[in-house]
Specification:
heterodimer, A: about 375 residues, alpha/beta, Aspartate Aminotransferase, domain 2, Aspartate Aminotransferase, domain 1, 7-stranded mixed beta sheet, 3-stranded antiparallel beta sheet, globular, B: about 70 residues, alpha+beta, Alpha-Beta Plaits, 2 helices, 4 strands, about 25% strand
C-alpha cells in the first residue's frame, strides 16, 4: 500500500520510536512518584524528553513544556483556560474543529469570535484581515500555522506581532507544521499546541502545550501530581499545574525518540524533500482534465506538504475509495475542518487530501497521478 | 565536606535545578525526600556542597525554582 495520509498521522513510525514505546511499556515504573531506582529513572527519562522538546522549540525553561493527550487537548486547555465571559477571539477562516468546537462551546458562556479571511500567497492582506477583526473586547488571536486541508501556511510571525501590538495573546495550532516548519518560542508566541504523532513521528495519544512566560491558562483537570500531596489545592508550579494523573510514559518516550529522529534528519531537509514531492504531484494533477486544484502552486514560503484536490463530478469519498482499491491510502471528506472547506467552496463535495512523510517513496507521485488519470476519465 | 540540602516539590524542577547547577560546575545529588513532615510531603531533595550554597541558591531563585532548606531525611 502507498500510504499518503500522513497529515492524519505519520506512518510508519521510525523503528527507534517503536522500540522506545516498547521498552517503556515493558519496563517503565511510574515516573516522579517514588524513590526506588526504576521510578527515579522513569522520572529522569520524562525530564530528558521535556528537555528535548524544549530545545527543539527554542525554550530555555523546560517546565513550560506541558505534556498533554494530544494537540486537541492542548487547544482546549489553551482556549478554555484563558478565555473569560465577554472575551473576543480572532481566528483564521481555515481553522480545524479542534479550535472551532471549543470556541463554539465557549460562545454559550459569552465568548465571541470572528473568522478572518486567509489570502494564500498574500500575507499583507491576511494580516490586514486579522487587524480589521480586532475589537475592544479581543483578548486572543488564534491562528493555525498551516491548514490541515489546503497546506496553506499562515504568517504566524506577523500575526503574533500584530497580537502583541494590540496587547493580545497569540496562540498557534502547529498540528501540520511541527517537525516540518521552523517554530521557535523565541519568536514570542504565547501558546503553541503540538501533536506528537504527526511531523514529530511519535505515537498517538501524546501532545504538547508550549507556554511562554506571559501565558498561564487555568487548569482543566486537577488531581495527583506527585508533588505537594499534603495540600488539596492544585499546585501552581509548571508543569504540575497541568499534568495531573500518571504520565503517558510510553507516549512521552516515543515522542522523544520521534523528535530525536526529526533532529537527525534535519527538519529543513525533511521540509524541502516533502515540498519537492508535493510540487511534483501538484504539477501532474494540474495536467489531468477533470481535476480541480483550489490552491496556488505550493511554494516553501506559503505552503506545507499537504495538498487537496477534487475530481469534478465525483464525491471525494468515492475518489478516495477508488484510490484505496488500487492500494493508495488518502483521506477524503471535510478533514474535521468545515470552515476550511467553506472558504474554498468544497463544503458539499469535500476534497481528497494527500500528504507525504519521510518514508513516502518518490514513485508515489507517479502512482497517484496514474490512478487519478484513470479515475477521472 | 559539609553539604546543604534543599527540598523541591516538583520532580521537574528538582531535575531542572540539578541541570542548572551542573551547568555552573556544581555537582549535586538528587533523591526522593523520605521523611515526611506536614508541609513537605511528596518531593525531592537536592544536595550540594555548602561551600557553593549562596551561588546555588541564587541560581535556583533566578530560574524560578522554589525550594526550602531541608532538615528531614533522604
Amino acid at each position: 500500500m502507498l500510504y499518503a495520509d500522513n497529515a492524519a498521522t505519520t506512518r510508519p513510525k521510525p523503528p527507534q520510536v517503536v522500540q522506545a514505546v516498547q521498552r517503556a511499556v515493558q519496563s517503565g515504573a511510574n515516573p516522579g512518584r517514588s524513590g526506588y531506582p526504576a521510578s527515579m529513572e522513569a522520572a529522569r527519562q520524562v525530564y530528558e524528553a521535556r528537555r528535548t522538546a524544549a530545545d527543539f522549540f527554542g525554550m530555555s525553561d523546560e517546565s513550560r513544556v506541558i505534556f498533554t493527550p494530544g494537540c486537541t487537548y492542548s487547544l482546549n486547555l489553551a482556549l478554555k483556560g484563558t478565555l473569560q465571559p465577554g472575551d473576543h477571539v480572532v481566528v483564521s477562516s481555515l481553522e480545524h474543529n479542534a479550535v472551532m468546537r471549543p470556541l463554539t462551546a465557549l460562545q454559550k458562556s459569552g465568548v465571541s469570535f470572528t473568522r478572518a479571511a486567509v489570502f494564500p500567497g498574500d500575507d499583507d492582506r491576511t494580516v490586514d484581515a486579522f487587524r480589521k477583526s480586532i475589537n475592544g473586547r479581543t483578548r486572543l488571536i488564534a491562528a493555525m500555522h498551516a491548514s490541515n486541508v489546503w497546506g496553506i501556511r499562515l504568517p504566524i510571525e506577523r500575526l503574533c506581532a500584530l497580537a502583541h501590538a494590540y496587547g493580545l495573546l497569540f496562540l498557534t495550532d502547529a498540528a501540520q507544521s511541527a517537525g516540518v516548519l521552523p517554530l521557535s518560542m523565541k519568536d514570542g508566541y504565547d501558546m503553541v499546541c503540538v501533536p506528537g504523532h504527526k511531523g514529530l513521528y511519535g505515537p498517538m495519544g501524546i501532545g504538547l502545550l508550549l507556554l511562554s512566560g506571559s501565558a498561564l491558562p487555568r487548569a482543566l483537570t486537577e488531581g495527583g501530581t506527585g508533588s505537594g500531596s499534603h495540600s488539596l489545592e492544585q499546585p501552581e508550579e509548571l508543569p504540575d499545574r497541568y499534568e495531573s494523573g500518571t504520565a503517558n510514559y510510553s507516549g512521552i518516550l516515543g515522542l522523544k525518540a520521534g523528535i530525536d529522529f526529526v533532529n537527525a534528519r534535519k527538519p529543513e531537509k525533511i521540509f524541502a524533500s516533502e515540498m519537492n514531492w508535493i510540487r511534483q504531484l501538484y504539477q501532474g494533477l494540474k495536467t489531468i482534465p477533470g481535476v480541480r486544484l483550489l490552491t496556488p502552486p505550493p511554494t516553501q514560503a506559503y505552503a506545507v506538504p499537504v495538498l487537496s484536490f477534487v475530481v469534478e463530478g465525483m464525491e471525494s469519498e468515492e475518489t478516495a475509495a477508488r484510490l484505496q482499491q488500487r492500494g493508495i491510502a488518502v483521506r477524503a471528506g471535510l478533514h474535521c475542518a468545515p470552515c476550511a472547506h467553506e472558504a474554498m467552496g468544497t463544503l458539499q463535495t469535500g476534497a481528497v487530501r494527500v500528504a507525504p512523510s519521510v518514508f513516502t517513496p518518490q514513485r508515489g507521485v507517479s502512482q497517484i497521478l496514474e490512478e487519478v488519470r484513470r479515475i477521472s476519465r | 565536606m559539609s553539604r546543604t540540602t534543599v527540598f523541591i516539590g516538583s520532580v521537574t524542577h528538582a531535575m531542572r535545578g540539578q541541570r542548572l547547577l551542573s551547568s555552573r560546575g556544581i555537582s549535586s545529588e538528587m533523591a526522593k525526600a523520605q521523611k515526611h513532615d506536614d508541609k513537605k510531603s511528596c518531593g525531592y531533595i537536592l544536595r550540594f556542597p555548602t561551600s557553593v550554597q549562596e551561588e546555588a541558591f541564587s541560581l535556583l531563585r533566578e530560574n524560578g525554582i522554589r525550594f526550602t532548606l531541608w532538615k528531614g531525611g533522604a
